[in-house]
Design a protein that fits this description.
Layout: H1 7-16, E1 21-25, E2 28-31, H2 32-48, E3 56-60, H3 67-77, E4 80-84, H4 90-100, E5 104-107, E6 115-116, H5 117-122, E7 139-146, E8 152-158, H6 159-165, E9 176-178, H7 185-196, E10 201-203, H8 209-219, E11 223-225, H9 228-235, E12 249-253, H10 259-268, E13 276-280, E14 284-289, E15 309-312, E16 317-321, E17 328-329, H11 333-339, E18 340-341, E19 344-353, E20 359-364, E21 369-371, E22 374-376, H12 378-386, E23 391-401, E24 405-414, H13 422-429, E25 441-444, H14 459-468
Parallel strand pairs: 1-10, 3-4, 3-5, 5-6, 9-10, 9-11, 11-12, 12-13, 24-25
Antiparallel strand pairs: 1-2, 7-8, 8-17, 13-14, 15-16, 16-19, 18-19, 19-20, 21-22, 23-24
Helix pairs in contact: 1-2, 2-3, 8-9, 9-10
Length: 470
């Protein structure tokens, strides 16, 4: 039986349409043939450096087309791709690297590591090198997310799983714009889906309205997916300089999407359809709300996606099962056992289901905060707050937000004689936390609610407090 290998994605795309654009970033475009050739070149160069099947290679850099052949080179070798957030500070990066223990850290020119991607691409490949055949059950990619304790959790996906997440492919339907960075699960998920259909992925340097709309205009994109917060930026921007008539699908998801936002998207992009996707790094797509239902079922994430089984446990937590579940958390059997139970993934989301089988996310069962598609451990931010010289005690909680799903609110007890603004707080976090972990609201309180025996922060009470003062 033929195995499902990620290396076959680029091989078959290059054989099918070698000169078709595979990806673009700004004015630069690469073809499927170019990515395929570079991936085989890098596979030999990396093998010459001792990278073998099962070895982990970390990537730490800004969005670039040069990382595409690295991704597939590791697939050819049966090695593991471990991307890192380019906004990590040194301490955050150290935590991930200590967990991953990579054989090699590959970077761009802006981050420290063992070798730059430019140096690898320019290196002379060895004339003879031994490469072991990969297998579909080999670990292929590790996406690092924050755990409930603040320590990074590495979500492991096999070659088979990542290949299945790309779907079955079809015929080319037009370029898609990818707003997600290349350390994010969706950045590679959208790439796999597009390439299996022979389509181009248009990457952007930043997920702002100008870069995204420029990419649609320049590459005549047919599909655009943005989280609600980014859609609001686009809707507030003067779009007249851009030709956006090529768009056919303008999709969204990750957090709650209001009927007002969906109506505004439909008005701004006539002739398009919109669907809403709900999922996670661990489970891929869980539910999908189809275009015909986005206004009929306001605030729903839809019925289960194709091939997905879902259920609610006795506490209302949503569990999911499909063929695309992650293998577990890297070297963390305790966290894996808590998340994967008898083949089901516990999403940590509290949900309700209506009489037609459409699901609605109503809250979180865990303390982790989901903001703009990123997972943040509150404890990690708590510690930064508590180290501020003006703060006697502090904690954070995720507050529901129509654009971001949740935003991080900081609740602080000030030391006598001190004052603090949200700008001061964010400035203090600048060199201590990645930007997506920074608080966006500040609430001064007399005390932080904690459990009497253990002193644990009662975050649900913080959420109630924040909602009562707005």
């Amino acid at each position: 039986m033929n195995e499902l290998l990620m290396g076959d994605v680029i091989r078959t795309a290059a054989a099918r349409t070698p000169q078709h654009p595979a990806a673009s970033l700004g004015d630069r475009v690469v073809t499927f043939a170019e990515v395929n050739e570079q991936s085989h070149h890098l596979a030999m160069v990396l093998a010459g450096r001792g990278v073998r099947r099962g070895a982990r290679v970390s990537w730490w850099g800004e969005t670039t087309l040069d990382v595409l052949p690295l991704y597939f080179a590791l697939a050819h070798l049966g090695a593991v791709f471990a991307p890192m957030n380019p906004r990590y500070n040194d301490e955050e990066a150290k935590q991930v690297l200590d967990r991953a223990e990579p054989a090699l850290v590959v970077t761009d020119d802006q981050h420290p590591g063992d070798v730059t991607i430019g140096e690898l691409l320019a290196a002379r490949r060895p004339s003879v090198v031994e490469i072991e055949d990969p297998h579909e059950d080999d670990p292929f990619i590790i996406f690092f997310t924050s755990g409930t304790t603040g320590s990074p959790k590495g979500c492991v996906l096999t070659q088979r799983t990542q290949r299945l997440r790309g779907g079955n492919g079809s015929w080319p339907t037009g370029a898609s714009v990818c707003m997600f960075p290349q350390f994010h699960m969706a950045g590679w998920g959208f790439t796999g889906q597009a390439w299996l259909s022979g389509d181009e992925v248009a990457f952007v340097e930043r997920a702002d309205a100008e870069h995204i709309l420029s990419a649609v205009h320049r590459r005549r994109a047919a599909t655009l997916y943005c989280i609600p917060a980014v859609w609001r930026r686009i809707l507030e921007t003067d779009r007249s300089p851009f030709d956006l008539t090529s768009l056919r699908q303008v999709n969204t998801g990750t957090s709650a999407t209001t009927p007002d936002l969906l109506a505004a998207i439909a008005d701004a992009f006539p002739g398009t359809t919109t669907s809403i996707a709900y999922g996670s790094t661990e489970a891929s797509a869980v539910c999908t709300l189809w275009p015909q239902d986005v206004l009929r079922k306001p605030n729903s994430v839809g019925p289960p996606a194709a091939g997905v089984y879902v259920r609610l446990d006795e506490h209302g937590e949503l569990w999911a099962r499909n063929s695309q579940l992650f293998s577990g958390y890297f070297r963390d059997p305790e966290a894996t056992a808590a998340a994967l139970v008898d083949g089901w993934y516990r999403t940590g989301e509290i949900a309700e289901v209506d009489e037609e089988g459409y699901y609605y996310i109503t809250g979180r069962a865990k303390d982790t905060i989901r903001t703009g598609g990123e997972t943040v451990a509150p404890v990690e931010v708590d510690l930064v707050l508590q180290s501020h010289p003006a703060i006697a005690d502090g904690a954070v909680a995720g507050i529901p937000d129509p654009d971001w799903g949740e935003v991080i609110a900081a609740f602080v007890v000030l030391r006598e004689g001190h004052q603090l603004s949200i700008e001061d707080m964010r400035s203090y976090c600048q060199d201590r936390l990645a930007p997506h972990k920074h608080p966006r609201r500040l609430v001064v309180v007399e005390q932080i609610p904690r459990t009497p025996t253990t002193g644990q922060v009662q975050r649900r009470r913080l959420v109630e407090l924040a909602m009562s003062v707005h």
